[in-house]
Amino acid sequence: MRHWILAVLIGLATAFGGTAMAQQSINFEQFDPIYQPLEEAFRNGDHKAAQRVLKGMERQHGKTADFEFLSGIVTLLQMNDAGSLRLPFLARRMRNHWLQAVEYDPNHELAHFSLVQYLANAPGIVGGSLDDALKHRDRLHELDSEHRFMADIVIAMVQEDEAAELAAWDALFASQPENAQIRVNYAAQKINQEQYERALEQLQAALTLVAASDDEADTLVLTQLQYQWGKLAAVSGHELDQGADFLADLLAEDRLPEGMSQGWVQFRLAQVEQHRQNNDRAQQLFSAAEQFASDDENLRQALTEQGRCQRTC
């Protein structure tokens, strides 16, 4: 069951403009100001604190479409650390919150998109239904919502229609030509799918958008972009010099994508140096990355697969 929950998380994060978890990316300016106290709990991924805040808001303000939508996100947070037996119950609760949100407000775009994500990815035993997902996708088109493109992408991916998926991405890029973040998000997805040429094309476009900017938000996107470029080099063997330069810059300037340890940058740079046959340098970097592996299961697994993780990891 975890795999489709991850698909929902990634899709929400992409739609909300972030590369981290969806709860870290939600812009609370789009909600009634009464929900502002939830922001810190969401940013910290603290579902217990968020539940306490929501209970107080329910007593004071009652339930609204935003309340139900945010309740669904809180339930999604709970699913991150729930046991397998509890997951189906939480999944249905999350879906029901979002269904209630569109009952309160048929124009609630985020609730419709969340339902597209859920219904398209979830198994039928917990209420998944592609036909129902299409209805919410169509509603987003009726509303001329900015989320309609991501909804099209979700549906195309579930249907394994690569041409439709690429067309939807192109429509999204055309609708937001100055948005470098969505291009970096796309590149990250395509790197994971080993579609390196497509990833590189959007990394290059994003770099053009952010390179000359002094905006703090663009600086954060640039950090993500440089890491993804380095990751592409590490896993594909292409763009080695540029990838190495970007990763080295991140380490030298102590800039890291949000939620990422220095060990991951060292690990990727070590892989690049292996491709460049700088084996001594690669081994030094693998050893440096191991210092972070005890607190990072994914990094520990990556090092183990690389054959570098010692028993101290």
From TrEMBL:
The keyword Signal applies. Gene3D superfamilies: Tetratricopeptide repeat domain. The keyword Signal applies. Keywords: Signal. It comes from the Bacteria. Residues 1-22 form the signal peptide. This is Tetratricopeptide repeat-like domain-containing protein.
